[in-house]
Design goal:
Blueprint (H helix, E strand, L loop, with lengths): L6 E4 L3 H11 L3 E8 L9 E8 L2 E7 L11 E6 L2 H12 L3 E6 L2 E3 L5 E6 L1 H6 L4 H12 L6 H9 L1
Parallel strand pairs: 1-4, 5-8
Antiparallel strand pairs: 2-3, 3-4, 6-7, 7-8
Amino acid sequence: MQKITPFLWFNDQAEEAVNFYVSIFDDAKIESITRYEGGPMDGKVLTAVFQLNGQQFMALDGGPEFNFTEAISLFVRCESQEEVDYYWEKLAEGGDEKAQQCGWLKDKYGLSWQIIPTALPELLNQPDPEKAQKVMQAMLQMKKIDIQGLKQAAEQ
C-alpha cells in the first residue's frame, strides 16, 4: 500500500471526474466509492478510491468551498510525441484554454496537469548552455510540447 495518496476535492463532480480520468489512462481502475447518506450531500461521493497507472488517488464531493489552483499539478511523463498528443487531447477537452502553456493544461474540473515528454529535461539539461537556452525559449512559446520543435531549436 502506498504511504502518501493525493486526495482531490471536487465541488460535486468527483464521480464524473474519476470516471473521466480512469477512461484516459491505461492500467486504471476505480477501487471503491462510498457515498454520503442523508443530509444535503445525500448520494454524493464521500470517498472515491481509484488508480491511474498504479498510483492511487482519492476524491470526494466537498462542495464549492475550495477549488484547484496551479499550486499543485499532476505530472504525466511521456515517452513520445504520440503520448504527449494523446494525453493533451484527452485531458484538455473542455478545459481552460487560457491556462495552457509550456506543457501545462487545466482540465474541465479545474485540475492542472503537466504533459511532459522525457525529451524536454534531456534537452534542457544538455552540456551546451546555449542550446539549452534555445530549447527553453522554444518551450516558453509552446502550449502543448512539440518534441521536434524543441530539437530543432537546439540545433539552430
